[in-house]
Hints:
homotetramer, Tetracycline Repressor, domain 2, DNA-binding
Amino acid sequence: xxxxxxxxxxxxxxxxxxxxxxxxxxxxxxxxxxxxxxxxxxxxxxxxxxxxxxxxxxxxxxxxxxxxxxxxxxxxxxxxxxxxxxxxxxxxxxxxxxxxxxxxxxxxxxxxxxxxxxxxxxxxxxxxxxxxxxxxxxxxxxxxxxxxxxxxxxxxxxxxxxxxxxxxxxxxxxxxxxxxxxxxxxxxxxxxxxxxxxxxxxxxxxxxxxxxxxxxxxxxxxx
Amino acid sequence: xxxxxxxxxxxxxxxxxxxxxxxxxxxxxxxxxxxxxxxxxxxxxxxxxxxxxxxxxxxxxxxxxxxxxxxxxxxxxxxxxxxxxxxxxxxxxxxxxxxxxxxxxxxxxxxxxxxxxxxxxxxxxxxxxxxxxxxxxxxxxxxxxxxxxxxxxxxxxxxxxxxxxxxxxxxxxxxxxxxxxxxxxxxxxxxxxxxxxxxxxxxxxxxxxxxxxxxxxxxxxxx
Amino acid sequence: xxxxxxxxxxxxxxxxxxxxxxxxxxxxxxxxxxxxxxxxxxxxxxxxxxxxxxxxxxxxxxxxxxxxxxxxxxxxxxxxxxxxxxxxxxxxxxxxxxxxxxxxxxxxxxxxxxxxxxxxxxxxxxxxxxxxxxxxxxxxxxxxxxxxxxxxxxxxxxxxxxxxxxxxxxxxxxxxxxxxxxxxxxxxxxxxxxxxxxxxxxxxxxxxxxxxxxxxxxxxxxx
Amino acid sequence: xxxxxxxxxxxxxxxxxxxxxxxxxxxxxxxxxxxxxxxxxxxxxxxxxxxxxxxxxxxxxxxxxxxxxxxxxxxxxxxxxxxxxxxxxxxxxxxxxxxxxxxxxxxxxxxxxxxxxxxxxxxxxxxxxxxxxxxxxxxxxxxxxxxxxxxxxxxxxxxxxxxxxxxxxxxxxxxxxxxxxxxxxxxxxxxxxxxxxxxxxxxxxxxxxxxxxxxxxxxxxxx
DNA sequence: TATGAATGAGGTTTCATTCAT
DNA sequence: AATGAATGAAACCTCATTCAT
Lengths: 223, 223, 223, 223
């Protein structure tokens, strides 16, 4: 997907490998120190390559940010379908998707924050591409919601609004990590969050399904 | 509140006036271009003062960021109590608080985003001070929620979780403005959001109260 | 004339002074080492200012080249009228102009060569401005020629061609200095050159005038 | 002739072929963009070889410049004798030589300018070698002049001076192309130039010879 | 108190050259 | 003989900060 970035190196496989190497270093450093406070030299050292090498695979520093953000966003988009494989029951799919999304965010809090902080440093065209990725990820959640509605497990909810509620809930774990992470872990966070949010959308059938299937992890004394 | 920032000027009133002048310029420019891409010269020109003058009231660039963020955060904390003045009924207070919070965010989307983007550029001690401000604002919302619970209008909800749900909902209007603002305005956003979120927390009494009081703006066919 | 170059300093007199200072250093170094081989640091050191200062008065390195070339070209355009002050007789004016032009070139061989070498490094708009200056200088020579023709001292010569012959003759002293300067000095160069070139254009009257007036320096055994 | 440049390849014929290939690319690019603005990569691409290959036949970038300049200078030196083949009459030989020299310059204006611009970028030893080449070319013209003098067609002119007048006249077509080429073509340039310059040197016999032989192209209403 | 010219460390980027294949 | 990925010194330029006025 990192097309459109021009490289001075021909071998496409090498380009892919090097770019991943650079993106890894970039995600780590940009996340930790921010885009502007990280120097190209920092990245070169962290990736254990020379400064010159970077400019064989990338045209400027902004390209590195783009590469880093793409890597983060893609990892989100890839994880959810992976988690849903083999899960059929709609409510379970929904809970699984949310849980996985939160976990991914939780594992790379810094990267999620990076996306929020630095997307604006990209030029418009690329900013839009990044937003497009986010929309695609959101759609994975929205689909789960729609399935639950169709299966009569959710009331006829405002899908768009509910999707964003879920998304923001997930991101909040990263954005407000300083607040939450000292009180609970991701699992508890998801449990408490789902309990709160599901209450507003479950039908009677949905509630029964939820209890019988115990689909969403620790659900001892549900609502 | 802008204590701890050392000034070379004695007259405390002048210091206050100048700092507001600088903070205004800083909020505007940092919001528009980001902290690192804004130069001291930019701010001097925008505030119509000399570069030298800035350093009479501020020790370094980070001080300006701190000033700017304080200004933004304070405006949030001031607006909610103002809106609640004269409103007594708990559910109405809750709705009013949420509505006002969203509106403030809506009016200065850029400033809200600024807080998310650049807080990390502050040194830890100040970052904590900013977070403290946010917690104080959140507490205003949390209080409204607790009142509703005590009045039997809300079920015995997870107050902390619900507070953050509200807060993130409000911030989302700013953070995802690119998505929402082309489909609806703040008012519709709040209505749709409240409808969704309230469904999960209202008691029977709460629901009746909501309908009778029509406290929360356009509420055609509520839950 | 160094307008259109934007400065970050307001005081126009200071701007003028600093720019002359920078141009002096630039002419010297660019002449000696060439434009590309001279670094900004070199110029800063030679002008005894900081690197930063340069960028207060100039936007980039090309501006320095422009400044340098303007300075060189202007000195040419200024010297000829100065030398002609008080000289009335047309043939004498012609000889004086040529002599002075060669001398100016001779005094700053390196600068003349600079104009030939580096004008192409300017962007088109400025390159044209430089060419315009040259045309203006040439016109000073052309006017002397026309006066001689009108006074019946020169035959009805191809003025444009003759002007360029004179100009190239003058520049040749600089461009081919490596060849000439080890055999003669400027004065001899001018004498020999004028003798050759005048032979083709003088009328009978012109020849007599030339001898009687001995206007053109050492003119022992004229044509 | 490109001796003294060390090559890592043994086969002398291959060396010659490759070096011509590189010199062609170098002349073209150095002429168009200048020496310093042309990268080795540019030349490799233009010559359709790899960067590494260049360094098999050349030690550094300056070698390429040397190669390029040699190629240009040699073409000058070769063309004149070629044009003079079969021409016997001294005045005709002179005119033919001048005409051909101007034409060669006219056909590769950029290359001529290259010689003026970039010779200084060579190290002294090589710069002298280039100058030597120029002197040799000049000698071809000087010989023609001397023949005319000996044949009583030219007065006892200052040969060295006149030679340089011719040379500079020829180069001027390239150096001042921006001025001349929009008013006339090379042929007209030579005609007008020769008419002017010959007037000063022709004897009575020379004039008659010129008219009778019409040796120098379009010579309608000569001196 | 206010100004703005001056400073220079440090950032990004380029590109001639090397060397393992 | 030919390739081209890798290197890193060195260039240009920015901008936070100081200080004499």
